[in-house]
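The methods section describes the discrete structure representation at length, but only in general terms. Since the whole study asks how a given chain folds, the encoding of that fold should be made plain. An entry of this sort, consisting of the sequence and the corresponding backbone structure tokens, reads as follows:

. . .
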Amino acid sequence: MSTPVSNSKRVIVIYWKNQDEHPFEVFSNLKNFCLSYPEYNYNTLNNYLSKGKVPFENKEVRVERKNVFSQPKPAISMARTGRMIVPVARKVALKDAHDTSRDWEYWLNQSPSKRLAAVTFIITQSLGKNTRMDKTVVSSKTLKS
């Protein structure tokens, strides 16, 4: 873990042990937490958090002071983590992409209702504002599921 710089920003992270819906809260400083929850004494919490960076903890809550990282951490070597993130996207010039076969294969793997929804979406995008599709030209067919 990297050593924090002395002028780095820190926040107060609160973990409420008995709350399921929103167990975490973050405060910009300890004073704001103590003003929001007067049952917690500023001096007591400050003593815990400043001496050896020990978090304050009781049955209800865990209070920690954490550093805010404004720059990315140095890259961790693959040997330590055992994994590597592989890029999924491929970069090609549009004229050299030749995605027709990929597109065809993708749409053949989709359900007929998804294909129909995609075509309907494309048609609605091409229509102007307050205009409707001329349904006299379109022939309607029932899909079999």
About this structure: The first helix runs from residue 30 to 36. The radius of gyration is 29 Å.
